[in-house]
Design brief:
The chain is built from 23 helices and no strands. With about 500 residues, it is mainly alpha-helical. Among the domains are: about 10-85 and about 175-225, no CATH class; about 90-170, no CATH class.
Length: about 500
């Protein structure tokens, strides 16, 4: 699209949205922790989300190369702004730092809880403040910044390797900044990878804007330092590798997605993309799954040898704490008024049905992985919105922006839970319910736009539909993918 000029007002709109996003990011990063700033942070995120929508829409009306460059510049700018203050929404990175500290001393984080006397000598002042420090944090004497200090770690082995690396590189003095810079690094890598992944799948590189300009990975991966950003990077890399169906590429794709699952377990769902796309080539699928299994075994085996069954850490307790085991976490199926166990069964059945459809229809890898992970998040309705960062990366590669609604849906629910709103359950059901409606509406719109030519001719023969048939059709790319002006969701259902 070189040489194509865009009206100045479009560039003005993009710049205003970009500058506004940077300003809003600064306000969020310096606005204080959620328990102090409270609902004001959610309002800022809401306005930022509107700016994100404007910027993405405008990006597709700008010349391709210039638009991609502008998107990447804006994406880096907002991520730099996220470094301006300490974490605002989460204290997970303090647990990362503790696990890294334990490993740097030669210990195993699966073996001891932070409060154990055996590791008391490893406590650092910034994680275990003195009496004055605890008062500053509005906590009782003897406090710690680490969440759940009375339980062992929950994070998988490659996350632990990441924690050890960042701790050793950052040192004690870096404190939270080391983890924010680590998140910033993974985000830069993902921004560089997304256009390559999109081109590999024959999609418009401007879909990079869906991830690059979103407030959610900026806040979660950079400001809050969540390791989910590393998982997103690995999943997108795996999907990019799978664009070519050679055995070694799919073995590598499976291994990289398997590595993502060893950072946070839930990205393993993306392996459905390989199963669906390779349904008629079982040997190809087998190589991909074997690659993932090899990484999982190699990652866990040293810890199993060292600590045995303790390698599960707090995972079983976490599932009980979050009420997944009892089925009470499933807000959408629970809205039917059925018991928790039935709600859990219905949620599982819905996920199985979606996965079955993707496999039967041989949905392409990016779309199938997006559908699988998105359906899992809608079924589980987690409180933690950062779990959806991986979904947003997949949705960008799939060119499926409707799934961004699932990413946004978790934030009102999260704020309601953290701020002890008595209506947190209702807020969660509304948020995730609207996200489900958005996804279904996008899927319906896409099916309508992809009706067989015979049905379209039948429609054009109808006087009531002739006006609609006379409107210009949606352009498609040379690869058969819908162009940027088509319906927003290119995911097959």
């Amino acid at each position: 699209m070189a040489g194509v000029k865009s009206p100045p007002r479009l560039w003005t709109a993009f710049v205003v949205a970009g500058v506004g996003s940077v300003a809003l990011c600064l306000a969020v990063a310096t606005g204080g922790p959620i328990l102090e700033a409270r609902w004001r942070l959610l309002v800022l995120l809401g306005v930022w989300t509107l700016a994100w929508g404007v910027a993405v829409a405008v990006a597709f009306r700008l010349p391709g190369r210039a638009a991609l460059a502008a998107v990447l510049v804006a994406g880096v700018a907002v991520r730099l702004a996220a470094l301006a203050g300490p974490p605002t929404l989460s204290d997970d990175l303090y647990r990362y730092a503790w696990d890294g500290r334990v490993q740097a001393s030669g210990g195993n984080p699966y073996q001891w809880m932070p409060q154990a006397r055996a590791v008391a000598g490893l406590r650092e002042a910034w994680l275990w403040p003195d009496a004055q420090g605890c008062r500053d944090l509005r906590r009782p004497p003897g406090c710690t910044r680490i969440n759940r200090p009375a339980v062992r770690t929950i994070y998988p082995p490659l996350a632990q390797a990441w924690f050890a690396t960042v701790y050793r590189l950052g040192g004690v003095e870096a404190r939270h900044q080391a983890w924010q810079l680590a998140g910033f690094g993974t985000e830069l890598a993902l921004l560089a990878l997304l256009p390559l992944a999109l081109r590999a799948w024959g999609r418009d590189p401007r879909w990079t804007a869906l991830y690059a300009l979103s407030p959610f990975p900026v806040v979660e991966v950079v400001n809050n330092g969540h390791v989910d950003g590393l998982a997103a990077l690995l999943v997108v890399a795996g999907v990019a590798l799978a664009a070519r169906t050679s055995p070694w590429r799919w073995a590598a794709a499976g291994a990289v997605i398997g590595a993502a699952a060893m950072v946070k377990l839930y990205p393993a769902v993306a392996l459905v993309g390989l199963v669906a796309a390779g349904r008629r080539r079982p040997r190809l699928v087998a190589t991909g799954l074997a690659g993932a299994a090899a990484v999982a075994v190699g990652a866990y085996l040293p810890h199993v040898v060292s600590v045995g069954s303790r390698v599960l850490g707090y995972l079983p307790g976490y599932l009980r704490e979050e009420r997944y085991a009892s089925g009470e976490r499933h807000l959408l199926t629970g809205a039917l008024g059925v018991p928790g166990e039935v709600a859990a069964a219905l949620a599982a059945a819905a996920v199985v049905a979606v996965v079955a459809v993707t496999v039967v229809r041989r949905v392409p890898v990016p779309a199938a992985a997006t559908l699988a992970l998105g359906s899992v998040l809608l079924a589980l309705t987690p409180v933690q919105p950062w779990y959806a960062v991986v979904l947003l990366g997949l949705a960008a590669v799939a060119g499926a922006p409707a799934w961004a609604a699932v990413v946004a849906a978790g934030y009102p629910y999260f704020f309601a839970v953290i701020l002890d709103s008595p209506r947190s359950g209702l807020i969660g059901r509304i948020g995730y319910g609207l996200a489900l409606v958005a996804v279904l509406a996008a899927a319906r719109s896409r099916r309508t736009n992809q009706r067989p030519p015979s049905l379209q001719r039948a429609d054009s023969a109808s006087p009531a539909r002739s006006a609609r048939a006379a409107t210009p059709s949606t352009p498609t790319s040379a690869h058969g993918n819908q162009g940027p002006t088509s319906g927003p969701d290119s995911t097959r259902t």
